[in-house]
């Protein structure tokens, strides 16, 4: 605003140049300090601010954003804001005679955290993910970018990161191809309305950051007639695409109420525990690692089961039930059809239809035979009865009242009146 003087402008130029050099030194070209809007004022969070602007004198009032500011905030043409919050960051306009004289944009400066990132690769052929879990609140207008370069001398590029509300993390993706085996130089840049901060640069090699997701669908089941065995199965993580790269697994198991933890490594998706404690529940979890490099995944969800026991106190699983019914079916008719499904659905107690026919015919035949014999014997029996009476009278004195005593009691028993409640 003052008259153009040679010396001060030279000084200004020099100062600006110096400032640029210094800031260029501190601020990465891809993580520059934000350019402040014209007519803005930067004030730290919770500070007291007094606003004014040229020409705002005398009988004036202020507008806070779109609405008129309360009278108590105005003093001698100035606007006083106490203990400012981030919501106070807006445009304030000085009004004189219904005309806006000037305006100031207040930028509330909040502490900007230096980003601390972590990068990982879930599969050798997938993209690299870098994450930053911020500890403090996210300041207004916060932007996060990932600065990356392939090798030390290559040109750096910047990729935007996004905020994931469920994990409360900033997440960035870096395009990676499995044929690139050199290192990446990575750093994360956080920018707010008023400031920018760059995290420490990291040299990242795909081998060092290889960490798969944990295995999924871990199940444990008892093995019939094996009181010390358990069968563990699982599936590779969903992010592990294809079969070209192999995973190594570590199975960890411990009996309930015990600190004794056992573990074993395998490259199959199934494992047999052979030293389980009889009748004790066991907890099992599995983790995965690329077979040659990188680090172990986190542990999978825990599964549990109790080994098979003689008295069968354990509830049979659906799987074992199916196995049992299939077993019965095959032992009943070993030459049955090969369809496994029918083996499970057919009830083992139902004999084929022809057994009824054969049974019926045989029964009828036997009945006929018995009838024929009975008729043929009829004459013999009548002569025998005549002889028998003689014998009876000789050896036993049968009381005449015996039969009449029994009969009425039997009759009563059939028609007993049971008192109904
Ligand atoms: C702001 O002003 C109040 C009094 O109005 C004072 O108590 C407080 O300490 C001031 N805050 C700062 C940061 O200066
Ligand atoms: C990796 O990212 C690139 C673009 O950045 C994308 O085209 C590609 O599909 C991604 N690859 C995988 C495996 O997600
Ligand atoms: C596990 O994998 C090996 C080969 O790595 C194989 O020989 C073995 O039969 C597998 N075991 C089971 C139980 O599938």
UniProtKB/TrEMBL annotation:
What GO cellular component is one of the record's annotations?
membrane
Entry keyword set? Glycoprotein, Membrane, Receptor, Signal, Transmembrane, Transmembrane helix
Q: What is this protein called?
A: Interleukin 6 receptor
SUPFAM superfamilies referenced in this protein's UniProt entry, alphabetically = Fibronectin type III (SSF49265)
**What residue stretches are annotated with the Fibronectin type-III domain?**
214-310
Tell me what topology the record assigns in the membrane: Single-pass type I membrane protein
Q: Where in the cell is it found?
A: Membrane
Give the matching PANTHER family: INTERLEUKIN-12 RECEPTOR SUBUNIT BETA-1-RELATED, INTERLEUKIN-27 SUBUNIT BETA
Q: Which organism is it from?
A: Xenopus tropicalis (Western clawed frog)
Is the keyword Calcium in the record? no
């Amino acid at each position: 605003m003052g008259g153009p003087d040679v010396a001060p402008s030279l000084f200004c130029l020099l100062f600006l140049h110096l400032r640029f050099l210094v800031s260029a030194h501190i601020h990465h070209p891809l993580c520059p300090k934000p350019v402040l809007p014209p007519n803005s004022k930067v004030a730290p969070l919770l500070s007291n601010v007094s606003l004014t602007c040229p020409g705002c004198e005398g009988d004036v009032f202020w507008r806070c954003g779109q609405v008129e500011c309360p009278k108590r905030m105005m003093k001698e043409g100035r606007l006083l804001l106490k203990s400012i919050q981030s919501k106070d960051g807006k445009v304030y306009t000085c009004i004189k005679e219904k005309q806006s004289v000037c305006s100031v944009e207040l930028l509330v400066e909040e502490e900007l955290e230096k980003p601390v990132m972590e990068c990982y690769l879930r599969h050798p052929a997938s993209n690299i993910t870098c994450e930053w879990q911020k500890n403090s609140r996210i300041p207004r207008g916060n932007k996060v970018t990932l600065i990356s370069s392939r090798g030390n001398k290559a040109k750096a590029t910047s990729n935007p990161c996004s905020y994931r509300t469920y994990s409360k993390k900033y997440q960035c993706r870096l395009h990676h191809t499995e044929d690139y085996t050199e290192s990446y130089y990575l750093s994360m840049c956080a920018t707010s309305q008023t400031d920018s901060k760059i995290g420490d640069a990291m040299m990242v090699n795909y081998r060092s950051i290889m960490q798969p997701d944990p295995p999924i669908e871990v199940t444990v089941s008892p093995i019939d007639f094996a009181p010390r065995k358990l069968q563990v199965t699982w599936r590779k993580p969903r992010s592990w695409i294809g079969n070209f790269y192999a995973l190594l697994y570590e199975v960890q198991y411990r009996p309930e109420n015990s600190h004794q933890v056992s573990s074993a490594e395998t490259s199959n998706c199934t494992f047999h525990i052979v030293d389980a404690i009889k009748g004790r529940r066991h907890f099992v979890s599995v983790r995965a690692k690329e077979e040659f490099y990188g680090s172990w995944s986190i542990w999978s969800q825990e599964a549990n089961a109790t080994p098979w026991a003689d008295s069968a106190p354990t509830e049979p699983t659906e799987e074992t039930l199916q196995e049992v019914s299939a077993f019965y079916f095959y032992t009943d008719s070993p030459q049955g059809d090969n369809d496994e499904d029918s083996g499970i659905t057919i009830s083992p107690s139902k004999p084929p239809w022809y057994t009824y026919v054969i049974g019926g015919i045989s029964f009828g035949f036997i009945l006929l035979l018995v009838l024929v014999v009975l008729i043929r014997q009829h004459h013999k029996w009548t002569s025998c009865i005549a002889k028998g009476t003689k014998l009876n009278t000789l050896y036993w004195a049968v009381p005449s009242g015996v039969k009449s005593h029994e009969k009425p009691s039997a009759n009563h028993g059939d028609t007993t009146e049971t008192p109904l409640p």
